[in-house]
Structure formats: C-alpha cells, structure tokens
Amino acid sequence: MSVAATAAEIPIGYAEIVAAAERIAPYVHRTPVMTSRTLDERCGGTVFLKCENFQKVGAFKFRGAVNALLQLDEKSRRAGVVTHSSGNHAQALALAGRLLGVPVTVVMPRTAPAVKRQATEGYGARVVPCEPTLASREATVADEIERHGLSLVHPFNDWNVIAGQGTAALELLDQAGPLDMIVCPTGGGGLLSGTALAVAGRSPETRVVGAEPARADDARRSLETGSIQPSNDPQTIADGLRTSLGPYTFAVISRQVDRIVTATEPEVLDAMRFIWERVKIVLEPSSAVPVATLWNGQLDVKGLRVGVILSGGNVDLEPLFQALAGRIG
Amino acid sequence: MSVAATAAEIPIGYAEIVAAAERIAPYVHRTPVMTSRTLDERCGGTVFLKCENFQKVGAFKFRGAVNALLQLDEKSRRAGVVTHSSGNHAQALALAGRLLGVPVTVVMPRTAPAVKRQATEGYGARVVPCEPTLASREATVADEIERHGLSLVHPFNDWNVIAGQGTAALELLDQAGPLDMIVCPTGGGGLLSGTALAVAGRSPETRVVGAEPARADDARRSLETGSIQPSNDPQTIADGLRTSLGPYTFAVISRQVDRIVTATEPEVLDAMRFIWERVKIVLEPSSAVPVATLWNGQLDVKGLRVGVILSGGNVDLEPLFQALAGRIG
Predict the structure, then answer these.
(1) Which pTM value belongs to this model?
(2) A15, exposed or middle or buried, with CB in 10 Å at 0-12, 13-18, 19+?
C-alpha cells in the first residue's frame, strides 16, 4: 500500500461542497434531471439522470474550474493559472478564466486534435504544446509556473476542483429526492470524490459507486490493491476516463466509495446509443459508462432509487454530419 | 383559387385546443423549454426552444394522435383506426393506440425503411404495405376502412389531430411568457395550424410563422397563389416536411399565418449541427429548419421574444455509431 496515498489528509468535507455550491451558483447552470421509463423497466430501479452534458462547455468540469479560480487571491488571479488537459477540463478552465478575468494557459500534447486546441483558444486561453509524454507535460507545466508565476489548477488532484465537482451531486439530491445510490463515471476521480464528500454529509445512507471502462479499470484495481494503479494509455472509446487516480482522489475514494463497476466497450456504445435514440440527448461515451452498468445489470439496482451523473456531451459529430451532407447532394 | 380550399370551414378554435390540452394531459409529456445564449447572440432575439423531441415517440405527433383517439366513440374505438405514414405519425398513433386500447393499422409504402416498420410494429400496430404511389396508398386505406370498419386518423388533415398539435404552443406560452412570434416547421401543416389556432385565442398579438425547406416550399407557394400547391417528392433532408398542405390546414394557414420562410439544405444541416453540438439535444432535420431561418437571418427577430417548436428528434444514428464502433476495434 502506497504511503503517499493512504497518508493523504482529506482537508475538505461537506461544508466545503456547500460553500462551493454557493460560490459558483452565479456562473454555472443548474442542470435538469431526466428520467427514462425504458431504462427503469430494464434495470428495475428508478433512475435519475443528472444532465451535466447541458452544463457550460458541455461538462461538469466547469464547476470545479470556476470554484478553483474563485478561491485564488488577487495576486494569483492577476498572474493567471495553468493546467494540462486536452479534454473537457481545458475548455472548462478556459471559459471560467474568461468569465472571471483570469489568464489561462493550457499545456496540451501536440498530438491533440486541432478541434480541441481551437475550442480552448476560442475561449481565450493560451495553449502551449508539449510532447505526448508525462515527462514533457510535467516539464512544460513546471516551466510555465516558474517563468510566469502561474498557479496550477490540476484537472482532478486539487481540493477546490474536487469541491466544485461535488456540487452536481448536491443539486441532484435536491432535485430527485432521497437516493439509494449515485453512480459516477470515473477517470481521475474528481467527480467521484466530490460526489462522495457531498453524499457523506447530505445523505450518508446513499451508496456512491464509480463506473469505468473495463479496458481502463485502474480505479477498480486501485481499490482492490490499496494503492494507486497506473492507467497505461488504455484504448477505450470513453476518452474522458483514461486517466488514473491521483493521491487526493484515491484518498477519498478508498475510504468513501462503495465499489467500482465496469462496462465493456460494446456495452458502452449500446448504452450511449440508447440515450441518444430514446432520451434524445447528446452524451459523450464517458457518460454512457454508468448507464451501461445499469443497462446490463453489472450493478443490481432493483427496487432502488439511483442517481447517475451524466458527465458531459462533447463528442465528435463529424461522421454523422458527413453522412447527412452526403444525402443533400 | 381552389374552391375546396377557401370554402373549408374551420370548425375548431381556441376552446378546442384548450379542451384537447386537458384531455391529453394524462398521456403526454409536458416537454421542457430550452434556451441558447449563442443562438440569441447570433439572431439578436430571445429564443425559446420547445423541445417536442422529448415528447413520447420523440415527436409532437403524439399529441394529435392521442387527442384523435380520445374523441372516438366506443364502437369506433373497438373497431380501430387506420392511417398512412412512414414517419413520426405512424409511431405516434401506434403508441397512442396501445396506451388507449385502440387497434391501429398503418398503411406504409413497401419502400419505407425496415426500421420504421419495425418501430411501428414494436408499438403493437398492424402495418399494411402499399405501393409507393398516392393511388395505391389511398386504395389500400379505403380497402382497410371498408373491410374492417376502421376510422381514418389522417396525419394532419383532421381537426382533432390539429387541435392536439396546438397544445404544444399553449404550453410554450405558459412556460416562456409573452412571445412576439412563434415559428413552426411546416410539412402537412398540422402543427402550424394548431399553433395558429392556439395563438389566436391565447395571444393574438403573437405572429405565427411557418418554416420549410427551400426545396419543399409548397406552403409558401400555396399562400402566394391562394391554392394548395403540390409537393412533388422534393429531395430534402428534412424528410418530415415533404408533404403538401391539406384543405383543412390550408384553410387555417391562409387566414391566420403571418408568413412562410425557407432555408436551404446546407443551412438546415448547419443549424442542426449547432443544436447538437451546443444545446446537446438530438434533433431531426425537420426541426432544424426554423432554427436555420433564425440562424441565417431570413427571419429578422432582433429585439423579439421568439418561440420555436422543435418538432422531433427521430434521426438515423447508424452512421455515427458505425464510426464509433470502428474505433473500439
């Protein structure tokens, strides 16, 4: 068992999640909760889908980004922040920075899709390319911090970010009423950690479960082995869930999360298609992972009231619109 | 000017729409209204999107189908109903029949996609194939009526159907508050007619505008010429809007609709992509037509409060999921 992991203190709790919710309220959407009779009939439970795909930038990540920026002191705000991401956190921090007047730098691998870079720059962030290795990423971030005096806003291993992510679960409990269980997609574990802290204070009888792709089951293995297991570039369609846990998120998850369940790639795609076709919302593959675990019974929720946090809706629609454009001739 | 068209009496009005809303309330979803800051900034108005893509069977058509079936006398209910459709009306009537215990027969061209037939049969309807010609369709429907004593529930040229469709606009006005304009996609004109009748009674200062594909601009031409213009198998991606008006819908539209605007095929696709990517909801091309007229300024709505009825969300997702399945290897 890794000393670093188990020794990590957990300096925040329910009070910090509530404070974060109040702090970010003027900036974030209170996203709706949807239901599906088809899903309920299939899994035997009553499922409440918290639609963070409707959040600003199309992902829950905006909550943590706003909370982190609002906690900077004046000097740090003026100097600006840096992060590393080619995903939703990059855009979330970029937009949060624009809205709050904080300069944002995003270190992004050269290999990231041009559309990701453009979207991040479109929100006014400065993008600094790095090589697609951990060493290059860390060196580039360190260099930016040293040269420009920037503050790091890590995508998930940051208590302010974790507190912000936990606000989605608070809203869900307000909107859906008592829940027996909440299931979250699990990559770096920020959403799952924030949810666990929120639930522990508001509704301790609610079990918190993480869901991850079977091909990227590092969180499950980390809980089983008691130390953070690496995630070695797993090939999963759920590209938001490829990351391994960090010391902070492992500390919370190993103590407060009931279990981690997994779904195979075809199961994830089937669940995603079900949501698109029947619930009529645009969901990214990562968000379909918890739905898949309900749809296929990995998670037995018969007779239970279950919340699912649909983490985001950012997906490449080019193949669909290419096909449609082909039809208009 | 066609005598049949202009002579058509309009036997329903606001009271019938209100009665329809009460009648169907236990069966239909009260769909949400969404907004988009990006859309508002682009068109200069304040736009309220009435999300009938979230309606049962994914389309407003369910409203009219339920209202029509609830108005049958006991004998007609037992005998059952027939319609012709390969689109949303087929599934809407099939589900309405299943929920209300009314046998449903749908006459559908042999050339309709298998998925449409399966979906309709999946809701328990009997599908009777016909040749893909108007003559065959009408003969097949007439034969079903004669042999089985069925009642026809026309997709749009039916006052009970029109009254049911008008209930979406009533809800929209309740949800959004006062509106300067409501824009509806326009195919056979059932939604546009019902909306016009609802608005005339509830909010006579609100202008009602129809939107159709430039390639299927028969409603526009019908208003200009003063008689129903045919729609000759137009090649538009907005497959729900290929139909021409009927005598009933023409009677309402020619008297109570402000104007008809059109959008080109690329404009429709662009608007649809904007909605999917930014509003994160699944919309069919027909529903993107009114959005396109706002997005591209055919309809000047600067400073106005504008409602748009997003009519449905049934679209073939196979190309997208084929592309995604290719990625999971």
Answers:
(1) 0.94
(2) exposed
